[in-house]
């Protein structure tokens, strides 16, 4: 899928709260180039797509969007965006490993959280019990 269409589709499928959170994360991200608040505040999803594409190149816009989604713990949406665009993330440990926050490798077995409860604790992008990203979107 074309990167522009994939980003626009991803943004259109975010809830209002998650879209606002995405814009907040975009303005406050530490990487360069920075996105100024006045380019984001009050903008539509289509306009945010254009901000991403004009600030970063086509591939960079996808990478940054996936990074922000992962920061928001919208891991399925990040994975879907990357799959739709066939873009690989360039920063080691960032979007290439979207589940890094959920890793339980170094946690004692008695302290581990079950997969079901960790899904219930996400920020709202992933709905418990949905087997795929597209099924989740159909319920939104």
Keywords:
140 residues, Death Domain, Fas, 7 helices, 51% helix, disordered C terminus
Question: What can you tell me about this protein's structure?
Answer:
There is one protein chain. With 140 residues, the chain is mainly α. The protein has a domain at 3-99: Death Domain, Fas (Orthogonal Bundle), CATH 1.10.533. The protein contains seven helices and no strands.
Write the layout of secondary structure elements.
Layout (H helix, E strand, L loop, with lengths): L2 H10 L3 H13 L16 H11 L2 H14 L3 H11 L29 H6 L12 H7 L1
Helix pairs in contact: 1-3, 1-4, 1-5, 3-4, 4-5
The number of distinct β-strands equals: 0
What sequence of helices (H) and strands (E) makes up the elements? HHHHHHH
- Look at the structure and name the CATH superfamily of one domain: Death Domain, Fas
Structural class of the helices, strands and pairings? mainly alpha
Number of helices: 7
What is the helix content?
40-55%
Assigned CATH class of one domain:
Mainly Alpha
Q: What is the architecture of one domain at the second tier of CATH?
A: Orthogonal Bundle
Span between N and C termini?
A: 22 Å
Shape: globular
Low-confidence stretches: 91-107, 111-123, 126-140
Per the CATH scheme, the topology name of one domain is: Death Domain, Fas
Radius of gyration, Cα only, in angstroms?
Answer: 15 Å
Oligomer: single chain
How is the main sheet built?
A: none
């Amino acid at each position: 899928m074309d990167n522009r269409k994939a980003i626009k589709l991803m943004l259109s499928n975010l809830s209002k709260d998650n879209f606002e959170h995405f814009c907040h994360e975009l303005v406050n991200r530490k990487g360069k180039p920075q996105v100024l608040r006045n380019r984001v505040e009050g903008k539509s999803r289509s306009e945010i797509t254009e901000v991403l594409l004009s600030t970063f190149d086509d591939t960079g816009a996808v990478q940054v969007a996936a990074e922000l989604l992962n920061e928001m713990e919208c891991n399925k949406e990040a994975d879907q965006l990357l799959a739709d665009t066939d873009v690989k993330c360039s920063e080691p440990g960032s979007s290439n490993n979207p589940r890094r926050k959920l890793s339980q490798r170094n946690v004692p077995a008695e302290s581990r959280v079950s997969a079901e409860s960790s899904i219930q604790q996400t920020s709202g992008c992933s709905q418990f019990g949905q087997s795929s990203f597209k099924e989740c979107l159909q319920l939104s």
